[in-house]
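Researcher: Here's a chain I'd like modeled. Treat it as a single chain, no partners, no ligands.
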Amino acid sequence: MELNSVKETGVLIVGAGPSGLALACDLARRGVRALLVEQAPALFPGSRGKGIQPRTLEVLDDLGVGDAVREHGGPALVGMTWKDGERQGEYDIFRRAAPTEAEPYGAPWAMPQWRTQEILAARLRELGGDILFSAALTGLSQDTDGVTAQLTTGEVRASYLVAADGGRSTVRRSLGITMDGETVDPSPTVVADVRIAEAALDRLNWHIFLGDAGLLTLCPLPGTPDFQLVAQIKEGTPDTTPEGVRRLVAARTHLAAQDVTEVRWSSDFRPRAALADRFRAGRVLLAGDAAHVHSPAGGQGLNTSIQDAYNLGWKLGQVLLHGAPAALLETYEQERRPVAAEMLGLSTRIHQGRQERGAAAQQLGLGYRGGPLASGRAGLLEAGDRAPDGPAGGGRRLFDVFRGPHFTLLAVGTDAALPSPDGTLLRTHRTEAYEVYGKGLFLVRPDGYIGWAGEDTAGLAAYARGIGLDLDFA
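Model: Modeled as a single isolated chain. Structure tokens:
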């Protein structure tokens, strides 16, 4: 975009973090015109959000980056505790389960945040999109038809604006939306990406150093030669300079300062949990850290953020391209704010040692039962549930059938009449009875949740019209 030019777009996304990039990818594959802007000159360079939970792995696979995530990441490592320079034994902080037909990912995956963003950015460019860097938001206004945003690069007019610009969101503050929360830990935390001499520390475990001065961990980052350092600072002011990081490692571990051969990135923060009091103001919607800020202990921040985008993308597409009522966007806050609140509570309890990282952290059990877009029940599943994976016949999986920006009407163990698929917005699929589903009809939303369920198609057409989906039963 040329300096001082005026650009029109369907959706302006402010912030090229995980949620902004995921949303841009989802909109691009739907053919929605979108502009993704980032005030920094480049993508975030650090590892901060390194844990990818099983549900987010499913989302990333649907967005077309599953292979890249598997190539560049690795399983989350088992912890090795240390005290006074001696190994105390392994300690696994994660729930790990074997993959099943219904849940193909049973354990969390590790990959530095910068790599996740790099992969999503490459996918966005594959889809014909891009990122406008060094474009800071300086003002915005909105009316009944759209949003006008002032950027340092010029003016943008958009039908909708999505604030994905982090916990200190300029957009959220300009709208006067408050974010209530609490300090989870009064002690600041230093986080850094470091390289360590090969002979000094192995890469087989997530190393956890215990001591009176506070916890320090060194976690190998898969696909890189780096370790992520995380350290509590109970006394004094955090020193995030390379020399300060080296002194911290030498003081808290058996390693010498010179064993830290490079400090590639460092920062400090005070663990906090906060939730915006609303996720929407007119034609502006909040996503990711702009809407909720988590302690990193539960590994929920990046995951919840990407899933915000996954929920919002198809709704924007239906409203902008397929005639769905604008009221469909109201369901974004109605569905996602309770999930964010639940995950914030989980992260805080884990940080404070009041709960283990169990099945809830994997986010596979999250859903929208009883929500504004959930209607009906069939077999063993209720509308609002995550649609499980499973055999789809012909050597394919159900996730293969669902993959893409379309809705899927799934007939399981029934010969009930189906509407005609259009090949783009709606696809239909029949499969044999499957114990995870039981028997029935299931309309699977583009984000992988069941919107409508029933034993036959009674009520399906009316439900579909409300989300911009016209069914042809001819």
